[in-house]
Amino acid sequence: MAKSGNDTPLMQQHRAIKQRYPDAILLFRVGDFYETFGEDAIHASQVLGITLTKRNNGAAASSELAGFPHHALDTYLHKLVKAGFRVAICDQLEDPKQAKGIVKRGVTEMVTPGLASNDKLLEHNSNNFLAGIHFEEGKHGISFLDISTGEFFVAEGNIEYIDKLLQTLKPAEVIYQRSFQKYFKENFGNKFYTYTLDSWIFDEAFARESLLKQFQTHSLKGFGIDNLSRGIIASGAILHYLKDTEHPNLQHLTTLQRLDQDDYLWMDRFTIRNLELVPLGNGEGYSLLRSMDQTVSPMGARLLKRWILLPLKDQHKIEERLNLVAHFIKETGDRTELIQQMKATGDLERLAAKIPLKKVTPRDLLQIARGLQLIEQIRTKNLQASNSYLKRLADSLNACGIIRDKIVAQLIDPAPTTVQKGGVIKEGVNEDLDQLRKIAHGGKEYLLQIQAREAERTGISSLKVSYNNVFGYYLEVTNSHKSKVPADWIRKQTLTNAERYITPELKTYEEQITGAEEKILQIETRLFDELVQELQEYIAPIQVNAHVIAILDCLTCFAQIALIHKYKQPVLKDDGILNIKAARHPVIEQHLPAGETYVSNDIYLDRESQQIIILTGPNMSGKSALLRQTALITLMAHMGSFVPADEAYIPLTDKIFTRVGASDNLSGGESTFMVEMNETASIINNITERSLILLDEIGRGTSTYDGISIAWSIVEFLNNSTAQPKTLFATHYHELNELEHRFPRIKNYHITNKEIGNKVIFLRKLAPGGSTHSFGIHVAKMAGMPPSLINRANEILAQLESARQDAPDAAVQQITTQKMQLSIFDAHTDTFQQIREKLDGIDINRLTPVEALLKLQEIKNLIK
Questions:
Q1: Given a cut of 70, is residue 68 above it in pLDDT?
Q2: Closest CA to 639 of 316, 312, 279
Q3: Are 583 and 603 a contacting pair, CB within 8 Å?
Q4: Is 333 helix (H, G, I), strand (E, B) or coil?
Q5: What is the Cα–Cα distance from 855 to 842, expressed in whole angstroms?
Q6: Of the N and C termini of the chain, which has fewer Cβ atoms inside 10 Å?
Q7: Which pLDDT does position 761 carry in this prediction?
């Protein structure tokens, strides 16, 4: 925006504020509107679809202008932030009526994608994390904060662990040192909205001081993070960023939780994607989360997502969950009642966070009170439960009785959406408020009382009380009764046939009634603010309540899906044996066509007799589904969920690795095969004896013999490694079946099929022994390939199979030359051969036109 010496005071004020927030769209409150100027107005008009106009300030200079009504802020703010803009909200800091000169203004909040607390900007079933990363040589620190719930996490690890956490928690915004922009892009690409900060912010002493001040503690040992210096720096950077973006009220940040890599079953981002654990970016398609989510509270929905992506490794904690799920399955009545109660509690986590952010409404407060009443019922009911974990959870609930009862006693139910609408505080709470309400709402009755009393005292039967803007309230007396007017009345106006008077009582009442509405709003606002201030002391227990409800919600959800889909309780052991009877795929099973049942299979793996299964079988027969269901059942068991199987003995697993399907990274300059090799190398370099590995079609991105060689050597490596990880290896390379005869721990299995005439029926059942046929041509036929193409493919296949044992290379050569020539030239092969020989013998550069015609005639005679 061009500077002008003739700028109005308003525009000078705008420029001064905008200079402090150059990278944000400044929403500048002017009266009942939020206005944007200059570049901001151009962006706002494009994103919001509002009119762009020009503001002339009396000089030659003019500025673009676009605005919207202040009450539409939520709607428009949502659109700007979703479009990736940072938005600074500049409000009027004083009452315009009281202001001397220009109204004082200032930025009251900066909203960025990672700092959204407005309901319209948030998904109720997903966290909205801001991530801070501190990069250091070899090991990095990372922290995640959801300002809308108060959840605050910290972790340290190598670049793979940082990448895994970013892929798992999917922050809406990432902040990091400005000097690491290239490094960030190389490792994480362009998938995240980022903002860079100066390096001086990433200082350990500064970060520790910020955290100690925030939590009002003398050390960080109580959070178990005292030794995580890099993580502490990342967390401190987040706190600095919050202060920098006008977020000073953070009383709901009461704890900092450690995300320790050793606590959770490891899955890299390839595995999370390959197993389809959560919906992809567009939210479409089936996923494990969507198939399992029967939660009834927003807190439960958010926690379930985290449980799926971060399954436990601690056997005791897993069994606690499993036993409580079993308890809920058995106690049907208790489970149903608990689900109904949790459903009605509301989003206590986000409601509690609104308190310090000063965004809580009267309606929110009543929902908190209702939630706390239900918490009391849940606590009382379950304190004597037969399950020790449930008793412990119930015991940690706190119904916050004093503040809950105070909210119920003071607020009118139903309450308005804002205090400004009035009608918030109940009668009997404040004497002055009740008196003012009587004056404001009982005015007519009071005036009639005055009128009747004065008419009786004076004997003026036609006396009436009226009002105008000049005199306010007055008594009007007709001329015929003028002589009866008492001495204490004060005459104000004489009319043709009447006179108007005021009395000290009327004047006093007028003063009361004139300011009553304003005073009512002031008292109601003060009482509401006092209630909110008092509620600040209860934020931490309310957050604990919300977390306990989230846990109970997830575990009752597990009980519900176990009952609906006939899941069974898995047994976790540390003996390294995976033994699943009648295993099913939890997602595919739920989306089968009506009347069709899922074909279950048994899976057995151990480290002594059957460490690696080489799985062959037709295309579309279900090899990939078998691999995935083995991983999903293992993962579900580690979450504490029942599993889709008749019996499941699951070994404690520390890592699940998958390499399934093909995916190019063309933007990064990597081919399908390069991506496949990168992912496989990551697996090979990180295996342990407790790992579960699922490999599907390794090596198919290169030539056949290269692919077979790589696949063969990978299987050999996994068999010979000291870790001896349990492995399922699905392949089309039937040559790998030979490995069973060379290594005792490698076993061949195939997915069965049945041929009836020209049709192939996939039986989807696992059976010992290798397969020698992939039925790829059959699948091509099903996909709608032309019959001629299918017939030709069958010819080539027959030729290759007949020559496979003797000289496969010769067979391929035969197909590519002789067979193809025959199919093109057919009956005229000899003639065309002669024509080719004649043409080969001609030197075109030395040929005269006459000779050319004669040669053409010769060729024409050959084909007659």
A1: yes
A2: 312
A3: yes
A4: helix
A5: 9
A6: C
A7: 62
Residues 394 and 302 in one domain: yes
Same domain, 557 and 597: no
Burial class of 130 by CB neighbour count within 10 A (0 to 12, 13 to 18, 19+) = buried
- Coil, helix or strand for 369? helix
Q: What is the CA radius of gyration of the chain?
A: 39
CA 5 to chain centre: 49
Q: Are residues 377 and 492 in the same domain?
A: no
Report pLDDT digits (tens) over 541-560.
999 999 999 999 999 999 99
Which alpha helices (H) appear in 459-604, and where do they start and end? 504-535, 539-565, 586-590
Residue 655 β-bridge partners: 266, 691
Contact 176, 134 (CB under 8 A): yes
Domain containing 490: what range?
Answer: 431-530
> Three-state DSSP class for 49?
coil
Domain end among 782, 799, 829:
782
Q: What is the CATH number of the domain that holds 59?
A: 3.40.1170.10
* 19-42 per-residue burial string, b: 16 or more CB within 10 A, e: under 16: eebeebbbbbbeeeebbbbbebbe
pLDDT at 60 over 80: no
Instruction: Order the strands of the 726-730 sheet from edge to edge.
Output: 266-267, 655-659, 691-696, 726-730, 612-616, 746-756, 759-768
Report the mean per-residue pLDDT for the chain: 85
Tell which of 760, 782, 804 closes a domain. Answer: 782
CA dist 576 and 652 (Å) reads 7
Number of domains observed in the structure of the chain:
6
Q: Give the Cα separation of 311 and 266 in Å (integer).
A: 8
- Report DSSP state, residue 844: G
Residue type, 85: F
Q: Which string of DSSP letters, residue by residue, matches 713-758?
A: HHHHHHHHSSS--EEEEE-S-GGGGGGGGT-TTEEEEEEEEEEETT
- Dump pLDDT digits (tens) for 145-161: 999 999 999 999 999 89
Tokens of 286: 């089936």
How far, in whole angstroms, is CA 783 from its chain's centroid? 36
Pick the closest to residue 132 from 5, 281, 307, 256 (CA basis).
256
327 plus 439 within the same structural domain: no
pTM of the model: 0.82
Q: How far apart are CA 824 and CA 830, in angstroms?
A: 13
CATH number assigned to the domain comprising residue 457:
1.10.1420.10
